[in-house]
Design goal:
The chain is of the alpha+beta class. The chain has three helices and four strands. A four-stranded antiparallel beta sheet has the order 1-2-3-4, covered by helices on one side. The protein is globular. About 10% of the residues are buried.
Length: about 100
């Protein structure tokens, strides 16, 4: 009887997990869609990747703020020039990562 009870409990847990997974959208799909909000950011993203940056994300499109992983592995906050598609400010999240 104990084995049957454990099996039924396991089935209930698995069924609940499957139902939850079907309802909740993927966190990766929500956060890391990889889409830039405009062509401006597509071109800026391409320049940053060519320079060795990775995981480029737009924090605020209106103020041109981004964050990315620096070629040395540190996380940086970037501010882009509004029309020239150049980085005007780079601030490391952790100064020791410079």
């Amino acid at each position: 009887m104990t084995h049957l009870k454990a099996t039924l409990t396991l089935c209930a847990i698995l069924a609940g997990t499957t139902a939850f997974a079907a309802q909740a959208p993927s966190v990766a799909a929500q956060v890391h869609s990889g889409e830039m909000p405009s062509r401006y950011y597509d071109e800026l993203n391409a320049k940053l990747i060519a320079a060795g940056y990775s995981q480029v994300h737009v924090l605020d499109a209106e103020s041109h703020k981004l964050w990315a992983r620096h070629p040395n592995g540190g996380i940086v906050h970037l501010i882009a020039h509004p029309s020239e598609r150049k980085i005007v400010s780079e601030t490391f999240t952790h100064p020791a990562e410079r």
